[in-house]
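Structure, all two chains, one model.
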Amino acid sequence: MSDLLKPGDHVSSGDKKYRVLKEIGDGGQGNVYCVSEGEHLYALKWYNKSASTPEQYESIEMLIEKGAPSEEFIWPIELVEGASTDNFGYVMPLINTKRFTKLSYYFSGDVEVKRFETIIDAGIKMAHAFYALHINGLCYRDISFGNLFVDFETGDVMICDNDNVTFDNLTSLENNWGTNGFMAPEVVRGELPPSSQTDLFSLSVVLFRMLHKQHPLQGQREYDILISDYESDLALYGTNPIFIYDPIDATNRPVAGKKDIAEAYWPYYPTFIKERFIEAFTLGLHDPHARIRESIWIKDLSALKSQLYYCYNCGGQLFYDKSLLTEHMICPACKSKIKVLPPRLKIGDSVIMLNHDTILYANQIDSSKVMDYDTEVGKVEIHPKHPNVWGIRNLSDHVWRYVTKEGTVKEVNKDGVIPIIHNLEIQMGTQTGTLRLMSQIKS
Amino acid sequence: MTVDRLGNMGARDLHLFFLIDASDSMSYGGKAETLNNAIREAIPHIREVAKEAEGSIKVHALSFSTGARWIVNNVDINNFTWENVVTKGVTDMGRGFEMLSEKLTSDFQGERGYQPIMILLSDGLPTDKYEEGLNQLKKTYWGGKAIRIAIAIGSETDMDVLQDFIGDSFRGELKPLKAKNAAELKNYIRWASTTVSHASINPVRGMLPPPPTLDDSVDVENLDW
């Protein structure tokens, strides 16, 4: 048997025989093939001889025994061997590439994403998947765009290359590798092995890049490097990393007209998310214990989603932030002045935008339900006969209440609608909120 | 509407240089044809690497025989097609190195990029004094920073010359590859243009992952082209 398999070759586990149909990918450790067993199609990772080590075999065995932490992971199903003992591999589910696109393609401009919700939802789902992996005592080691697949219509995600996953207890520095730009600085410097803490750093890089396109550490200092190599990457990501929006050190800002795509996004995000990224790439850059936990990202990204509204001039999406609401505020897409805000729901300190198509999720209404990010509890609707009358349909199992002008308490059960009336106070289960109507921004 | 907004990604490109021996001896035993095919075979795989990179991969190729000439000039991998190499004459490898140095000191002055990859493919001995051209190449900023790979086609190649070309590139860990048959040549060209591209985009401290091995016991002297 050789490192490369040909169509028609067979590999087998104890009781199953898989036929190689075609190669679908390659990498340093080996190639990936599409294989069939009876009527079923699978993916096969086939290790090169040099990567077919007993350690690798045992670690795949461990993963199979443990099982996938969540449905997002393309997890090994079983180990397979060929004719000789030089090589082995494992079969796993075949990813549906009609639906899911490698995240890296988003940055090479091959994918068009219509709405911010898709990007935010994908970020939430990634955070949740790694949360599940980490609470199972595992770490991923190589979170990067090459391993993450996104359905850019729905925001669903898939995580592949799970043969890198190990128990979260690595002590040896021998296998300190990963993808440049995603590895935590202490891994780049070769001081600490990958762990769940270093995964959290990689996750914050992924989230920043999804929301800004630009790398959080690639500003002026990266631009000034003519030919990048191991030494320049070591400085940029390991020994002297500086966030492009570091509040104190301004030496690594985006380069105007050359490397500045982040400038089209960063100024338009709400303060709370910018502060979170500053935390991730200042304190979190240097202290592995100061990394942002997945649940915090889920909370913040869910809040970010609730701040989305539309520019009434071009239909582009904007984020609400009280501090951004000045007479000078412009739409980043069409550059016209923002004059109108949609209706809003204020719960505690948070303000949720009520657009014509907004869906409210459990964790946006009730901050104690952090992980409940995909349970729909309400939906904005426009009255079919009176387009000026908007309401929120109750999709939750809780009874909602409000007090009418006449002073009577009205109950709104599941599928009932609360009208959006200025300053109306509403009770949604255990939470109380206040409604605001559409308003003009004073100039 | 989309989430796209105006701005500059400022991504780096990876430049891939093929230096191809097009001397008369390459026309024997189907070597040139195998090489043409092997490069064509590698193209879709290089495109896959490019899809994952943020910038693009640009291809350059020059052939040397009696004299040297550019046959591919800065072509984006997505538009790249390979024309058959025309073989004729002697092996002016040094002239090839000189032409490459000239290009690097003019067109590439002040350019940003990943570590360029230079792939030398030859089946014989240089007929000119190659050392001068090679020194000139290694002295240029781009030539000095390059990951230089050398592939011998068949067993007649002067391996010392190829090792000299590689020099201390990639911390001196690289050895010339000897392609004993068509399948190996295809394999090596693909490795040099894809796995090495990965290593350039994502520079590592350790060794380059070695090319995959093929299951064969072909005698080096018993060529099967």
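The CA atoms of residues 66 and 84 of chain B lie 17 Å apart.
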